[in-house]
Every structure is written in C-alpha cells, then in structure tokens.
Amino acid sequence: MFERRFRYLCLKFECMLQRPRRNRKNVAIRDLVQETNLTADHLIYPMFLIDGQNKREVIPSLPNLFRLSEDLALKDIEDSLNLGIRIFDIFPAVEDHLKNQTASYSYAEDNFYLRIIRKIKETFPEAVLMSDVAMDPYSSDGHDGFVENDLIHNDKTLPILSKMSVAQAQAGIDIIGPSDMMDGRVGAIRRELDLNGFTEVSIMSYCAKYASAFYGPFRDALNSAPKFGDKKSYQMNPANKREALIEAKLDIAEGADFLMVKPASLYLDVIHLMKENFEIPITAYNVSGEYAMIHAAAEKGWLDYDRAMCEMLLSIKRAGADGILTYFAKDFARLIKSS
Ligand code: PBG
User: Fold this and answer.
1) What would the pLDDT profile of 1-31 be if each residue is shown by its tens digit?
2) pTM higher than 0.85, yes or no?
3) What CATH number did the domain enclosing 262 receive?
4) Which of 180, 205, 292, 318 is the Cys-Cys partner for 144 at CB 3.0 to 4.6 Å?
C-alpha cells in the first residue's frame, strides 16, 4: 500500500521523499547524528617497562613506542594523564637470565616490575593500572603456561598464575588481565585474590584470545616468542566464533568483571557477538600488529595515519567494545584534543 502511494507521489511530483544524504550535508548535522563516539575515556594504553634508569629502548616493529625505565615511564604516564588517558596496561621486558621454567621472577621480592607498579601508584594515585597475567614474559620456554615434556600443563599453571596475581595486587594493581587462556584460571585467580583480601581488584579476562599472527611486534618488544611450537593448544582458532561463547560463559561464572576480545579489528563479529550475549562490559585489544600495519602503510604514504587510526578505533567501538586497549591511545587523545 505504502509502496504504491510512494510511487504515485514520486511520479506526480517527480520527487524523492527519502534522501539520506540530507543528514550528511554539513559537519554540524553529521556530528548531531553520529551514532558512535570515542574519547580518551574509552582507551587503555599499553606500555613496556625495563629495569634501570634513564633507559628508552626503541622497538623497531612498534614505531614511537619504547621500553622505558621507571623514571621515563613516570614521565610518559604524566603526559598521558594530561591527555586524558587514565588507564594503563603495563608489561615488563624481563632479561633472559631471569627467566626459568616456573616463571618465578614474576613474584620475586626484587622484581623490578612490581617495584615500578608501587612507584607509579605512589606518584599518581589517580592512574588506574592493569597488568598481564601469563607466564610468557618470565618463562624460559616463552609459553603462557607451564611446560612439561613439550606440552603446556594446564593445572600446574594455575597456582603460578594465582601467585603472580597476588604479587601484582600487593604492589597496587587495580585490574588483573589473565592473558594465558588456561582453563579455570579466572576462578583460580579470583579465589586466591579474595583469600588474600584483594576483593576490590578486578579481573579483565582475555576471554576470546585468538592464536593470531598479529602479536609479532609485541613479542619483539618483550622478547617473549615461544621457544618451540606455537600457542594453538591454548589460544583460539581464528576460524571459530561460537567457541567464544563457551569461553565467555565460563569466565563470567568464574568471576570476570570484563570480557576481552583480541585482536580487535579483525574480530569485530566476535566483539558484536559478545556484546549481544552478555551483560558485563566488553573490551577489545587492538594489538601490536594492527598498530604496526597502519604505521607501515602510512610511512610508505599509502594511508593517512590519523584517518586510518580513527576509523579503526571507531569501528571497534561501533562493533560493541566499551573499552579499547590500544597503542594508538596517546596519538588519538592528542588528535581529539587538538580538533
Ligand atoms: C602475553 C600477551 C601477548 C599479548 C598480550 N599479552 C602475546 C601472546 O599471547 O603471544 C599480545 C599483545 C599485542 O600483540 O599487542 N600472553
């Protein structure tokens, strides 16, 4: 009925009633009808730390990012806070001689990473700190779990992860990020945190973490690539989506406060699926390879850096991510501040 009348009117007045372009005709109207908005409030900035003083090591596959010693990391956090970034995910680059089969340096008394966490919280109590929980930065095998006879032993890994989490909570971490993909780790960590009085420490579980080619630059930054094999027996197969629902249900039941999807821009369907199916906040990790890819293309003059960065981050938010972990955090915050 409506169709017929519409055709009649169009014929009679030679007009088109619906012209979606009218809502795009100038910047004020475009801004008025913009459905997705992204600010520095939605970003978490990952940083790499090293032991020592006044050290700033270049990471060739992560342009403009550095391994920083305590003093320079504090300066970087101050600059970021001034840009409106308030949440930081910090990773330690551990020297090889401190790595072993049990990742015992992760909770050692003299661990430089735990010392820097304390220092950051002392200097900037308003900064929210997130840490990674997995064995790989501390493991002589370069795997996220405990290795026995070239296999990753799930249940022997859980107490190590729990111990690592408590050590990080004692140092002042606000959000624990288990990135190891062992079964039952969220529950094991939650229990141990609570038993030690850290009921206020949150867990952001790397819930749908895929065995991705896009972690390469990160592994360069930490020198943490696996010494044998790959991570496919614990990280998810990029071909699978429904499996993410299984992981999500378990992580929620075990006490996760946020569910993370990783990588982000290649897994927008998974982010959307999570958002549709679960009530707790969804985050996405815009990983090192996604960052490196845009940098490399921009360096060649093939993409516009600022526009490509904004489009990538906005798409992740549009798909359903409440928060985004991204190496673009400072560049994005600087850009929106200046525009
Ligand atoms: C450690 C960890 C990894 C990343 C975050 N935590 C690497 C991996 O699982 O091999 C990747 C982050 C990135 O690529 O930016 N388990």
Assistant:
1) 567 766 666 666 678 999 999 999 999 999 9
2) yes
3) 3.20.20.70
4) 180
